[in-house]
Amino acid sequence: MGLASLPFAGSAAQAQDLSLNANRKIFLDPGHGGHDPGAVGNGLREKDLTLDIAKRTRAILDDHGYQTRMSRTSDVHVDLPDRAAAANAWGAHVFLSIHINAGGGTGFESHREVNATDHTRRFNSTVHRRTIAWMRQTASITDRGTKETNYVVLTHANMSAVLTENLFIDNEANANLLRSPNFRQDIAIGHFYGVDTFFN
Fold first, then answer.
1. Is 148 a catalytic residue?
2. Any idea where the MurNAc-LAA domain is (predicted)?
3. What is the arithmetic mean of pLDDT over 66-75?
4. Which sign does the torsion angle of CA 141, 113, 163, 63 carry?
5. Cβ-contact 168, 108 below 8 angstroms
6. What's the mean per-residue pLDDT of the chain?
7. How much is the pLDDT for 141?
8. Which domain does 184 fall in, by range?
9. Which one of the listed residues 109, 148, 165, 172 is annotated catalytic?
10. What is residue 55's DSSP assignment?
11. Share of the chain above pLDDT 70, in %
12. Number of structural domains in the chain
């Protein structure tokens, strides 16, 4: 699949969606960076994968008319509270933090803060459902479900915030998928569709 499968074939609907999306601010947060590599395994580093996926997601959102910003666009360290603070200062409508898991498991999961609003629960559910659907076009992916966790970037964000854990870097089969640019593109498309479905 890939970009050819995305909407916008050139139509009045395309112009309408671009107009609607122009006022929607999406803040993307690639996990870790700089002196903090995040999880490491099978020759991969979380900070590299999350930045690549976030940049791919941003490119698709930009192509569809959304306003986007990122907590980092290069290999630098950003403190956790500062990530949420940047989204708050900008007035983002949603906050999406992208991570890779570790610890001996397998599959995809996503997180929202404890006692999240219905709006955030719906955002979480939509991003989760659409992202794993795109992953599953390539391989059989375990659905680890949605979870409630008081991570700093979630609790400090003033808007609906979700954190995704995109497979396990220390699982060889998962790592082999993450190593593929095509699979990382599918993850990005899934994140895009999660956002786009939520708004549209």
1. no
2. 84-196
3. 98
4. positive
5. no
6. 94
7. 98
8. 23-74+81-199
9. 165
10. H
11. 92
12. 1
